[in-house]
Protein: Lipase domain-containing protein
Organism: Anopheles christyi
Amino acid sequence: FDHRLRDWLNNTEWDHSKENIILIHGYAGGDDTLPIAVLRDAYINHGGYNVFLVDWGALCQPPCYVAAVYNIRPVATCLAQSLMQLRDLGLPVERTTCVGHSLGAHICGLMANYLNFRMERIIALDPARPLIKPGGVNRLDQGDAKYVQVIHTNAGHYGEGGRVGHIDFCVNGGRRQPYCGNSANINLCSHIWAICYLAQSLYEGHEPMAEPCSRRCPSTAILGSGIRQGRRRFGYAMGYAIPMGLKTPPNASGSYCIKDNNPPFCPSKPSMPGPCQFQYLEPCTSKTIAFYVFSSEHPQDGPVLLDSIDPHVPEHIRLNHTNKLIVHGYGGSIDFNATKMIRKAYLRKPNTNVFIVDWGKLTRLPCYPTAAFNTKQAGECTATFLIGLQANHPEFSARDLHAIGFSLGAHVLSFTSNALEKSIGIKFRRITGLDPALPFFATARPHWKLDQGDADFVDVIHTNAGVYGKIETCGHVDFYMNGGQNQPGCDKDSNQPLCSHMMSAAYFAESINSKYGFWATRCTSYFAYFFGFCKYRVEQQQQQQSLIAGEDSSSRQEETAAHAGVALGENNNVLDTNRILMGEYCSNTVEGVYFVPTNPVPPFAMGF
């Protein structure tokens, strides 16, 4: 927001016909960090809101909670000035709601004290309790707006314990959420889920329903005997259940309670059964994130489990050999198919060690939102592991490790490299991202996603751009396989996007030992290709057509490679800047956008 430009508001995508939301994160948050990004996206996807996101992340970084509390007043002062300027530019304040989580809720309240008008509505998501004095002026209360709605999920610990607003919702007793029982920090987990309850209410038909109560939530499920759903046509009367969140009636007041042992879906899946493990700023342990090493010199030995903090590798594994690190994605594990095929391909090569990061307990189905949030925990714990490994084994260099991440695993490596740089001043020489995950990472800033600043060289393979994988360029070199969206071998699969997403691992695994190689053609950008300005080489198109017609692929590829005088390997991976190899032997001296055709069946590589 630039208050100096009088027409700033009208020159943005702001729509005067929509409601306006001012969204404020809490301690350790940011404009694109989860979980506040979940709520941001829910409002945007709803279609009826303009969202103004307040990023005060630089003033609330961990571990400086005391400083963050001190900073809420100057943040509120600046925000009040900005809101008054926006009103002067045409923002209708009567259709503007301030939504804040934790300390952000108190910023909403404090901001109201510096306005020359009264706020219409405030929605407070588990307002922060630590260091917020009861009855003081440095806090939210119901006098800060015409209508203040509060959702309590961790009252008495991280969240406020008493009545705060005109209407206060108590979720599962308001203190500890039952589905956070397997989290190492049950209170923090409970505190954050308040955001998802509001996000869920933005989806038609999924509004959580609450019943009137006094101080304690009832032990029986809501909408039981004696409790009737409110009638929208005639409003809501005492004794009726009302929706919590978006559709809470403005005339409702008092305490309302919800009893539900299942977590809210966050934000778009209607069912999310079972506990979803959530970790943030928690100690790293092998109970949640396990690290294994394989050696090509001893393939029969199987994986060796290493300590996550103080790892010691057996003497028979030589760490001065080539070292690879593989991180799986959502729903994965050490035996995840994508992880396994790459690992097996590397173990066919001599003098190679493969490290596996198994963070499967933090990525369980169907808990994608928490899995996306847990990428930070997994990445930082991986950095802790590598720092310990380097300290215990001087012959090992974390910097020289080639890190490969599939889907969410690609973003895990971003956090790993950033943590390494912050802790010991190094980052990876190379990261390979295999179709980096798109959901919740669509508009993330560089510090919350894989980008070319995370390593000296970042190469990315796109196979399902725009659905499961990111469409934007993420590395120094971005390869779009068969156009980057749908892969030819997935046409008949029941889930074509997921099949295409998985193909990124299959292509990369084949590239490790391929006789022919995945040769890529340069294009100025993805959109130049999309609009038909870039074409594959005619020879490749003809070759692909003949393969589909049933001709023998091996003889054709051998002849083509021999005719071109190309021998695959690390020293012959670039013909010119317009023709390079994709995969294991990608040159680290080139940059840009490249397109790669493949065969629909193995071997996928078409050769030169």
